[in-house]
Write a structure and sequence with these properties.
9 strands; globular
Length: about 350
């Protein structure tokens, strides 16, 4: 089917190109028509990439992925970055983490430059209520946004921590999350584990229902297609990363908006056959933008982020360039398309 779609797309491009040249009535017309043709070629290429993802996932449906291999459970530190977050929202997140069914973990709540002391001191009190497993860090006038705060929190971790998890301030994790995913690190090749993200409170409004299913496409189609070629991205919440690997690649990039996706590219390309494992099960639920204005702000952050990755690593994503990262051809293609989609 993909071959038929590709043939149809090429036939249309050939027809449109011939029409552009043969029907040209002047230089300005030819220039404008050529620009429009270029945009159509890009749109068709993106459409074919979506079709490939869908057909790839549908064609590989089978039994669920095998459980993580049994072995020693690593010591985990869960980092919850927060900037001016409502205390009531973060409290639910932290209370859910306190209920995790896992023997060896700690939680770092990393408050990054919240200007109102009443807010960050409220978070500090919540951590004190939840017990010694919870550590609160307030960073004042700290550079690097979320990435800079997480790098500093990692620097302060005790040496026995082997795996670092990141959980958004509004994300409520299920009790079985760590016990189901942390054992994957018994495989020395696994560098990071990303679970599918899920959302709550979306059923009652048409806008939120549409937004929910648009998010689900990425985790139900794009990520499984990437996983078939070891090209997933670390999505910044409900994910785990091997501490030694994170430190080896230099940590999160404070100059990049999508520091999570950018770091996963460096981890996969650092050599040694690093594997990013994708767990399609949703081990928790977060909150979506509740208004269209909030959605626009989110997308305006994501769009420049993809371009940032492209500007920084474009040589790693195109053939015949000098490559520093040890990526496969499939990984290069997935990250290239992910940067422009």
């Amino acid at each position: 089917m993909l071959g038929m779609l590709t043939l149809a797309a090429l036939s249309y491009v050939a027809y449109a190109a011939a029409l552009t040249v043969l029907e040209s009535t002047g230089a300005l017309f030819l220039l404008a028509s050529s620009l429009l043709l270029g945009l159509e070629v890009i749109a068709l290429a993106l459409s074919l990439s979506y079709a490939f993802e869908i057909l790839d996932v549908l064609g590989r449906r089978g039994p669920p992925p095998p459980p993580a291999r049994a072995g020693r459970l690593p010591v985990v530190a869960l980092q919850v970055p927060a900037y001016d977050e409502p205390v009531a929202v973060v409290r639910k997140t932290l209370e859910a983490l306190a209920r995790l069914d896992y023997p060896s973990f700690m939680v770092q709540v990393v408050d990054n430059n919240t200007p109102d002391p009443a807010v960050w001191m409220g978070l500090q009190r919540v951590c004190e209520e939840l017990g010694p497993r919870f550590q609160f860090i307030h960073l004042e006038d700290w550079p690097g946004f979320k990435a800079g705060a997480l790098n500093e929190a990692t620097r302060r971790l005790p040496p026995d921590v082997e795996v670092i998890g990141v959980v958004d301030a509004d994300y409520i994790a299920h009790p079985g999350w760590l016990r189901a995913t942390a054992p994957h690190f018994a495989d020395p090749d696994v560098g990071f584990v990303q679970a599918a993200q899920h959302y709550r409170d979306w059923e009652d409004e048409p806008y939120l229902r549409g937004l929910f299913y648009s998010y689900r496409y990425f985790f139900d189609v794009s990520m499984p297609a990437r996983a078939h070629r070891n090209a997933i991205i670390f999505c910044g919440t409900i994910g785990l990363v091997r501490r030694r690997l994170l430190e080896a690649v230099g940590g999160w990039d404070p100059d990049c908006i999508p520091e999570d996706a950018e770091c996963s590219l460096r981890m996969l390309g650092c050599g040694g056959g690093v594997v990013g494992h994708y767990d399609p099960r949703p081990w928790g639920s977060g909150m979506m933008p509740l208004s269209f204005d909030g959605l626009k702000k989110q997308r305006f952050r994501w769009a420049p982020g993809g371009i940032q990755i492209l500007r920084t690593h474009w040589r790693e994503m195109v053939p015949l360039a000098k490559h520093r990262l040890h990526l496969t051809a499939a990984q290069r293609v997935h990250y290239l398309l992910g940067s422009v989609l």
